[in-house]
Amino acid sequence: MSGLLVSLQDAVVQGVLWGIMVLGVYITYKLLDIADLTVDGSFAMGGCVCAVMVLVFKMDPWVALLVAGISGMAAGAVTGLLHTIFNIPAILAGILTQIGLWSINLRIMGGKSNIPLLKTDTVVSKFIDMTGLGKQAAALIIGVGIAIIMIGLLYWFFGTEIGSSMRATGNNEAMIRAQGVNTNWTKLLALTLSNGLVGISGGLVCQSQKYADIGMGTGAIVIGLAAIVIGEVLMGKLHSFGSKLASAVVGSVIYFVIRAVVLRMGMNANDMKLLSAVIVAVALCVPVVIQRWRLKASYTEGGE
Length: 304
Hints:
This protein is mainly α. The chain is 78% helix and 2% strand. The chain has helices spanning 2-31, 39-55, 61-84, 90-108, 123-131, 135-157, 161-171, 173-178, 183-209, 220-235, 241-264, 272-303; strands at residues 114-116, 211-213. It is globular and about 65 Å long.
């Protein structure tokens, strides 16, 4: 039982830290209807950049997080430029950027596949020294605090004129273009902002687990989609934009808790990617099946 509690505590911490990445995925997937595969590379890039800044350049861990976010924004901007200027389909543009980031991340880490930070100060270790809390409690407080700040900033930003234009671009691109809005610019900004959040999340996870790895972002887009779907199921009756943003983080926590429980039940860790894919596929297919069933039932009742 104690082992399960420790696993659940760690799952909650990981869920909150990855939840910031899910916020980034939410911007592109739910607002623009783009499944941006850049996140697999930009998440790892955030972690790699953060590790190098802290270990090699002795940079303050908080400043390193900012640099990680900027690196993620640069990756998102590349995808945005490929999509908007060269008319490459968004999903293909994301794949191209993701593939390129693998080599770039290796270059950033000096050709190494991972960088340990065992004897290096991080935001978590500094918070522990300041408060005397345990590692999990410190990481959880930092993660929740940053998540709340990000949700608040996003809620404010998407209430501004440019933020509303970004949301409208996803709802009805032709209509908002007719209003004189440059939709290429809103898409570019959304992809840049999204991957900035992903980069920050990668930096936080890196500092929390005390190492950066070239493959740490593998499957991030699937985790993001699964978390969004789970959050919508749990908080779907709440219609405010702020609650929808919060549901992304909540969904991330629930996803990691489910994963921890399944692993404790004896499931092979190598099958987790399959489980994630099944969760997303079922969650996306069920609403369609229900809608078709209701439509068929209404036609039957009308015929009678």
